[in-house]
Amino acid sequence: MSSPYQNWIITERDPLITITLNRPQAFNSLTADTLNELRDIAIYIKSKPNIWVVVLEGMGNNFSAGVDVGLIKPLMNLNPSFFQPELQNLQLCIDEFDTIPQPKIAKIKGYCIGGGLILATCCDFRVASEEAKFALPEVKMGIAVIMGTQRITRLAGIAHTKEMILLGEMFDARQAQKYGLLNQIVAQTDLDEVVHQLVQKFYNLPPRTIAIAKQIIDEGINLDLRTSQDLEIKLQAELLGSSDWLEAVKSHFEKRPPKFNNQ
Questions:
Q1: Which CATH number is associated with domain 207-254?
Q2: Check: CATH 3.90.226.10 for 8-202?
Q3: Is 126 helix (H, G, I), strand (E, B) or coil?
C-alpha cells in the first residue's frame, strides 16, 4: 500500500499491517487531520481479508503525547452547538479504529498520554517498554477526558479510572499494568522482538475465528448474560462449514500444522 497520508506510515507485509504515527517532532500528538486519516486507514483495513494482524506504534521515541494543544485552543472559541459536533467527529474516528475486526497490538514506548492512551486502549494487546510514561492529564487543562473515558473504565475499573483521571498525574509502566492497562512490560531493547513474537502467534490461528471471538467479547460486555450467550451461539454458527473451520478440525485429527486462508 503506497501511503497517501501525511501523518501515518503504512507498512504492509501480508498478513501484517503496521501503522505508524509519524509526527515525532510533536511527540506524535494527535490532530484533527491525524484522526481523520486514522479513520480512513481503519476503513481500508476492514476491507482487506489478507490482513490478519495490526500493529500500532509511534515514530521515534514516543507512542503519542495525546491531543495536540493546537487542536484544543480553537475549541475555546466555539459555542456548544459547534463544539459538540466537532468532538463527536473525532470520537467517531477513534470508534472506526476501535471496531477493526483484526487483532490490534499497541507497541508503546516513551509518552503514552491522554488521547494517545485512549488510542492504545482501542487495541486488543498493549505491550510497553519499561521506560514508558502514562497520564490522563486533561483535568489540568480544565476539561474532562475526551474520546472514550469508558474505554479506560472498562479496563481499569471505576476506582482506578477515577485515580488516573481526577488527579491527572503521570505514572509508569508498572503502575499502568497494575491498573490493568498493559498486557506486558519489556525492556526497551526487547520491545520489537516481543511484539514480533506476538504477531507470529496469529499467523497460526484462523483469522475469521479470531474476529468472531473478538466480536463476542467486545459486544457481549454490553449485554446481559442471556443475550450475550445468544450472540455467542449465533456468531459461532457462522463458522460452521467454513474453510478455516474445516482446516482446523482436519489438521487437529491429522496431527499437522494448519494452513488457514481466512475463508
A1: 1.10.12
A2: yes
A3: strand
pLDDT of the chain, 263 residues: tens digit per residue: 456 899 999 999 999 999 999 999 999 999 999 999 999 999 999 999 999 999 999 999 999 999 887 766 666 666 666 677 878 888 999 999 999 999 999 999 999 999 999 999 999 999 999 999 999 999 988 888 777 899 999 999 999 999 999 999 999 999 999 999 999 999 999 999 999 999 999 999 999 999 999 999 999 999 999 999 999 999 989 888 888 889 888 998 999 999 998 87
- CA pair distance 134, 65, nearest whole angstrom: 9
The grid cell for 181 is: 492497562
Q: How many Å apart are CA 100 and CA 88, to the nearest integer?
A: 19
pTM equals: 0.94
Question: How many residues are present in the chain?
Answer: 263
